[in-house]
Amino acid sequence: MIIKQSDFAVSAVKASQYPQDGLDEIALAGRSNVGKSSLINTILQRKNLARTSSSPGKTQTLNFYRVNDNFYLVDVPGYGYAKVSKKQREEFGEMIQDYLETRAYLKGLILLIDGRHEPTADDIAMYDYAQYLDLPILVVATKMDKIKKNAFNKTEATFRKHLDMNKDNVTFIPFSSETKLNVEKVKDWIQDRLDEE
């Protein structure tokens, strides 16, 4: 996939605000501060298109990024952030649920999990939910530049212990926005989803 053009399109909190142009969409989900904005910027070769923040919990809307006038990357609010009120967490949950369950143009979900740690209960719940919705899933282990190369297999084994990844619709990729590890593989996975009828 060659990225020729990318722009921030719209922030939305409900279906009436989603883009109405019928382009395919790939959603990105993960804990606050897991590196969703960094992955978006790295994939799209833009420095600050998706704003990275040192304070987690900043993404509080569904953010649509239009790519090559062909599809959208959709950044959903990060989960598992304690400083957000319970009511806000519930609202985020409903917003994410409405989007994932009703969006006809959604072709797959990229689930980002910090490669330095075991998947959390929230990560596992999100993964199981995506499985329940029968979405193609790309599990991305982020921040792999902080892990020694010879420990990569251990990271994958840990993920497989907590997530049932032995399914046809699941792919696992270790990733780093710092070293650009497997950027092309993530792009290829996206392209494959867009190519599916």
Distance between the termini: 18 Å
Low-pLDDT segments, ≥5 res:
none
Order of helices and strands: EEHEEHEHEHEH
The count of DSSP E runs of length 2 or more, i.e. the number of strands, is 7
Structural classification: alpha/beta
User: Percent range for helical residues?
Assistant: 25-40%
The helix count comes to: 5
Beta-strand residue fraction: 15-25%
Strand order of the largest sheet: 1-3-4-2-5-6-7
Query: What is the average of the pLDDT values?
Result: 89
Largest sheet: 7 strands, mixed
Report Rg.
16 Å
Given the C-alpha coordinates, what overall shape results? globular
Describe this structure in words.
The protein has helices at 36-44, 86-102, 121-132, 152-162, 183-195; strands at 6-12, 24-30, 62-67, 71-75, 106-114, 137-142, 170-174. The protein is an alpha/beta fold. A seven-stranded mixed beta sheet has the order 1-3-4-2-5-6-7, with helices on both faces. The longest helix is centred in the middle third of the chain and has 17 residues, at 86-102.
Give me some keywords for this one:
197 residues; single chain; 5 helices; 23% strand; alpha/beta; seven-stranded mixed beta sheet; 7 strands
Concise summary:
This protein has 197 residues and is α/β, with parallel strands linked by helices. Helices cover 31% and strands 23% of the residues.
Task: Give the topology, please.
Elements: E1 6-12, E2 24-30, H1 36-44, E3 62-67, E4 71-75, H2 86-102, E5 106-114, H3 121-132, E6 137-142, H4 152-162, E7 170-174, H5 183-195
Parallel strand pairs: 2-4, 2-5, 5-6, 6-7
Antiparallel strand pairs: 1-3, 3-4
